[in-house]
Amino acid sequence: QVQLVESGGGLVQAGGTLRLSCAASGSIFNIALMGWYRQAPGKQRDLVATISSGGSTNYADSVKGRFTISRDNPKNTVYLQMNSLKPEDTAVYYCNAVQVVLGGLNHLWGQGTQVTVSS
User: Tens of pLDDT along 52-67?
Assistant: First the structure.
């Protein structure tokens, strides 16, 4: 079983920065994709950014140029550097991992970390 543990959330003023980390532990193998999603109150969970095991990245339009996702494969850790934060970035941020297993894909989620950006 794989566990994802996030850290790095908090309260920051608009224009500030935060760095989120997500460490995977347990039966770690064949994790093809890791990423971050966020969910604001009353809204659906949306993709923020993903990164493949080979380093290919994908970003939501709303965060392009401000957020950077990176991955340390030996440490099974993914990071999200968030710069120029805006109040609309306020949400619970969830780490996600997609693991290739026999018969299909295993989608894994962390417990979430709160990011609050004040104006």
Answer: 989 999 999 999 999 9
